[in-house]
Amino acid sequence: MSSQLWQSAAAVLDTNWARGHMVPSRRLYPHQWSWDAAFIAVGLAYVNPQRAWADLRNLFGAQWPDGRVPHIVFDPAVAEGDYFPGPGFWDVPAYADRPAHGSTGLVQPPMHAVAAWEVYRRATGHGAAAVAAARDELGWLYPRLCAQQEYLTGARDAGGRGLVSIVHPWESGLDNSPSWDAAMAAVPADLSLLQRYARRDVQVADITHRPTDTDYARYIGLVQSYRAGGYDDAGLAAWHGFVVECPAFNAIVAAADHALARIAEVVGADPAPHRERARRVTAAVVAHLWEPASRTFRSRDVRTGELSGRRCVNGLVPLMLPGLPREHVVAIMAEAESERFGMPSLSGLPIPSYDRTAADFDSYRYWRGPIWININWLLRRGMLLHGYEAQADELRTAMLRLIHRSGHYEYFHPATGEGIGEPAFSWTAALALDLLADRTAPVPAAARA
Ligand code: 9WN
């Protein structure tokens, strides 16, 4: 299967390259997305490293002066109506040398330092000139990646506990995850907004596979709130309707600092502050997002102080942290292997986005049940990191088998493996390339310190 899968994955990435950047998919997502660009770069490193760097440059070229990296960089050649909410709705003013309406004001999980490190370490397979070019790219990216971390761990520490808060479910990348249900229940759902603004996603995708109209009314209302405040983060918890600490987002923040420590060594900067911040964020995840009764990580609503009552896959993602105490590693593995998430040995398939035994588990609806490859890719890395080689291998095989059988879909049915959503989805293809090529364990910065 491998050469056929390799060819089809490379073909998806060729098809989805548009005017100097990669789109997640042609129809549903016609602009550039932030965390997609990171996963995509990991795969492009094998087939077209120049494009991996160019895509990251396109994204960081749109970084705000305050350090935030926008969750969407809009392509000016795409019509306003081709994605909702489009550039006009976000109404982002001009900044630096960027014209107005160039991006959104939200962020996504900062996967980019991990991705940049992965692209750099793959450059050794492409000769000395490629390594030198990759070092230059790291030099360009490093201060920008640092500014991104400083924004997130500074202005976005809305709870004052050393954790980053997200201000919209879209920032998590796991849009309609049950992890946000309790916090979202308090956000007004003005359904008349959907008469004023038509959803574009349901014109190109099956409505039963997407977030509901109620979700969308809330999503739009939250954008209006943040936009009305000028996308400013001061005092967020007092005035904004959704302020939540997510275990996956924060684990990625800490993983970014581990990657930055390694990048710092290459570009001649001091790695120590990165290791120190990674340690602090890891400690805060353990101290504040762990629920001892269920022995799982949960999201926390900063406005109410409550942990979410739902077991979602974001609670497994802290496994990617090298400094995670053994007790928590063991608990995450137990959860991953339980009937709730079902490692491939139980289900024959990768891990779903939500507890399979929950009454409202939904096999089709986006992040409320289906399998997503990027999250499984992160979990596999965590398993390798903590010495669960057999399980990591099982997961790798299950992912490759699934993509080979069903195609480079956006997400997959958690019982049948049927492809759902977009059929030529960039991060699925990119990560398939990485899974085909890479059987090695990622070495954490901490282990070398
Ligand atoms: C909103 C692009 C993005 C991913 C997210 C995924 C989905 C957008 C949407 O698509 O979100 O940002 O329109 O539903 O949930 O993870 O980055 O692929």
Textual characterization of the structure:
The protein is built from 20 helices and eleven strands. The protein is mainly alpha-helical. The C terminus is likely disordered. The protein binds (2R)-2-(alpha-D-glucopyranosyloxy)-3-hydroxypropanoic acid. The site of (2R)-2-(alpha-D-glucopyranosyloxy)-3-hydroxypropanoic acid has 10 residues, from helix 2.
The side-by-side strand order for the widest beta sheet comes to 5-6-9
Bound compounds, each kind once, are: (2R)-2-(alpha-D-glucopyranosyloxy)-3-hydroxypropanoic acid
Number of strands: 11
Give the low-confidence spans: 441-449
What separation lies between the terminal Cα atoms?
39 Å
Number of helical regions = 20
Roughly how much helix do the residues carry, as a percent range? 40-55%
Sheet with the most strands?
A: 3 strands, antiparallel
